[in-house]
Amino acid sequence: MANLKYSILGLFLLFTTSCDKILDVDVPDNLVHDEFWQNRDQVYAALMGMYSSMHDAMNSYHVWGDVRSSLYAPGSGDAYNASYGQLMQHDIYPANGLLSWRTVYRSISIINSFIKNAPSALEHDITFNPDELRTMMGEAYALRALNYFYLVRAFKDVPILDEPYESDNQQFDLSAHPEVDVLNFVEADLERALGDAPATFDDVRHRYGRITKNAVRALWADVKLWRNDFEGCLDLCQALDAQYASTLVEPLSWYTIFNPGNSAESILEYQYGLQGPTSPVYGWFAAFNRVDADGERYLANATNVRLNSQEVLYPPTSLEHSSSDTIRLSSFAMLRNTAVFNGFGPALEVYKFLGSVPYQANYRAANNRIPNYIFYRYREVLFMKAEAYAMLNRYVEAEQQINLVRRHCDIPELTPGESGEGVEFMSRLLMEREFELGFEGKEWFAAVRISRRPGYENILIDKAATDHSMGRPYQVIRARLLDQESWFLPYHLTEVENNPQLDQKSFYRNK
């Protein structure tokens, strides 16, 4: 694996009030053992470094989990390039830069360093409470599991690294481990995390922006669903129901989920603020003019991708429901910006991430750097439960979960049996997910998860190939997706060239 050897602690970008610069580093051996991990403050700084390292991986998380779904079409100008096009038309080559997993493994390496070295601070700082260290360790194991879960869903078989780089003398096994081994590793981390992670935090930003037991449960339920352990998924969701069933945002307050964020039904969000890195959401989903501090107009952010306008994402509703749920109401869910900016054509914008208020085109202006990235919220848990119940042939309970979401969007509930069974139900469920969770980063993963089950294979293929956003013929896209190995990404060319232990997948070897 290329570029895994670097001074791990020098990569920390700290969200602390006491340190606003990258840590000075020495050679790794001396730093780890002689200069760092000496007290509680250093351990806490390293903990924050684990979270901040995820920001650099955010584009990979989102691209791998969403851009191949039917929600996207090419953007315009320099913001769109052939790399995104390859993913959208399912014709992916190993040289594609979007395949690089460097930032994700860098985050994992930082977490590995924390897991190995943080306990040593107890020997040097008698004021450091062991119980606080235990909860921090729970956060670390959960974050490592989250990173590996992204990797395994995107690539299937990936290397497992559970040690930090601390010396040039270390030897690592960089071969790709089978998917089952990676998932076992993830579940082992989550089991420890559930026991040790904090129940909650008094500080609101930490309550939703750091790992808690509920965040572990949501992530683990997602893993169980990926592994077709439907009873295990429901067991984990049961504890989440006890915490969140009464917290669903009411219809006319739906927008608080996204602005200001950290709503009562949130489980885990990546926090952005006026200090620190800027949220990538505007770069992905906005294309509009605004006036900068000097009064000059400029293209603030060109979208990498835009909505596939041919997709019927937001079906019409009766007038009585037309103003209460603008996640689904197309005139506000996706705003068409008709201006032309420096040669860029018009684009559609995902308003739920960008706007300052519902029901009118009013953007966040000076605060456009702060939209949070939502990893898990309770409505997704309800969709997980619906999927698990359906796979257990408990369709009445499955529809009840969907109707809870619909009820809190003030749109008509499904009538008994309306969603059908089997393939019909799962196809409908994917659309229901898109209505609610569209552009939140996981819809390709959801389609892959469902379609890998025997008898459901054509769901992903038909969804991807019908009315293709780049105008590719149905049969062309279908042919590219018939082999399920195409649903997973190839290893980046550089990784294969620099790592003799990593063999390119057979499906991609001649590309």
Structural key phrases:
mainly alpha, Serine Threonine Protein Phosphatase 5, Tetratricopeptide repeat, two-stranded antiparallel sheet, 20 helices, disordered N terminus, SusD_RagB_dom
What can you tell me about this protein's structure?
With 511 residues, this protein is mainly alpha-helical. Among the domains are: 208 residues, Serine Threonine Protein Phosphatase 5, Tetratricopeptide repeat (Alpha Horseshoe), CATH 1.25.40.390; 88 residues, no CATH class. The strands form four sheets. Strands 1-5 form a two-stranded antiparallel sheet. It has a two-stranded antiparallel ribbon with strand order 2-8. The protein has a two-stranded antiparallel sheet with strand order 3-4. The two termini are 20 Å apart.
